[in-house]
Amino acid sequence: MSTTTVMKPDLEFIRDLKKAGGDTLKKCYQCATCSVVCNLSSKDHPFPRKQMVMSQWGMKDQLLGDPSIWMCHQCMDCTKNCPRDAKPGEVLGAVRAYAFQHFAFPAFMGKALANRNSLPVLLLIPAMVLLGVLLGGSSGDWGYLFQFTGEVELARAFPHGALEMLFIGGNLLIFAFAAVGLMRFWKGLKAFTPGKSGPGFIPAFIAAITELLTHKKFNDCEETKHRYLGHTLMFWGFIGAMATAGFAVFFTIILESMGSPFYLHSPIDLPNPIKILGVVSGIAMIWGGWILIQKRKSEDAPGVSSYSDWQFLYMIWFVGLTGMLTYILRLAGIPIVGYAVYYVHLVLVFFLLWYAPYSKFGHMFYRTLALIYAKSVAIDNPRKK
Ligand code: SF4
Ligand code: SF4
Q1: Is the pLDDT of residue 71 over 60?
Q2: How many domains does the chain divide into?
């Protein structure tokens, strides 16, 4: 007896993918060249050919519940070799950008981050909050901000206590919101990609984290090998910058409040290991970001970057740049510019952190979970070693 399967394509999803950078998806004629050339494609769950047809058919839930979307590292080997110019690398990037919106909680935040017209408003929120901190902390005496020479006292303009409250309070809220989206994502993975019984959660977690920290998969790309160096520098630079901020709070504020003799009055002097870590991390972020930006902009770039790619890349690069400039201006003793640059730096830092689950920054969470899932159900089995 024959059975009939009725497909109900989600037309709005197809339209959204096209808008997010996947406008070529209809060109695909299923030759599978892309799955053959992709060095990251899995033996049992090859991609991206199957995901191309799922995109054409508007199979939204199946695509969003497919971990292969996140096993793709956007190297563009497939795009370069596609005989139809269907740009499978960009289509997968568009599906990932859609996922940030789809799983967003609250939903309007996902839409706001995906819309370039919302950028001024999104920037205005941390800008106004930080302006409030600045105005509230100086008790009406703002003359020191406009000096051309002299000491740059960042903590006088933006007191540590207020920044910590914004950082800790904001992050707690954002992580709670992110957890809602990530739980939905995990549920989708289990429903649409059941897999087999694998090594279990803990070994899969360790293997996934090791793979992410070492950036092993970036080395398997052919067309965009430079991304290994650029992404590694940016990733570790950002981790180092966050660690610097954490150490600075611990050694300058917590130890001082405890009356410990090991507290640091000013962490600005170079022999100080915290400052060295900060400087090295800042240089790594600027250098890594520069490599990624230049290569993406170059005429022979194998793929096209979407708004979500550029927004994240420029934000994180400017965070590194303004952080280093603040340090230099502080050393040089130029308050008027030093405070202004530090203000911009803080606005960008809070933009990145507060909107992390809704921007491309969220790929850290989604990719990690997808990798853990794929390894735990034994479907992350690379075709090429
Ligand atoms: S995306 Fe291109 S290479 Fe891949 S199956 Fe379609 S036509 Fe072939
Ligand atoms: S962009 Fe690279 S990793 Fe992603 S599917 Fe294409 S070849 Fe594979």
Answers
A1: yes
A2: 2
